[in-house]
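As a warm-up, study this chain.
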Amino acid sequence: MSTRLIASFLLVFCVLAVWQVLSIPESTIQSEVGPILAPAILVSLLSLLGVFYLLSAINNKAPDCIHEENERPLKGGSKRVSFLLGGGLSFILLAKLIGFLIPATLCGLGVAMAFDAKLNIKTLLMVFAIAAAFWT
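Now compare it with the structure written out below.
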């Protein structure tokens, strides 16, 4: 799949995210920071990075572009994507059932294994510590 196509999918996702942020109802409680601020900042940053990624892909300067004929992608790409998606899916499916800490740990473990971390106690403790810092 070409990097231009991936960048275009990312921008379509950003458009959908902007629509979702704009459809968040205003809070009836008066506060300085409403429910729209944090999602709006995240979607704005993701959209900006998506535009930069598309521009770098158009100019063939994206970091994941193949610049020479003898270059090949790393092996195991589908395994990495499945770890990443599996971690995210475990978070989505389990967060409502058992809370955030264990699903966030599983999600972090999926991300770590997508980046070739070994499945051992050190990785598990590190991911658990990060999840505990954010979710407790």
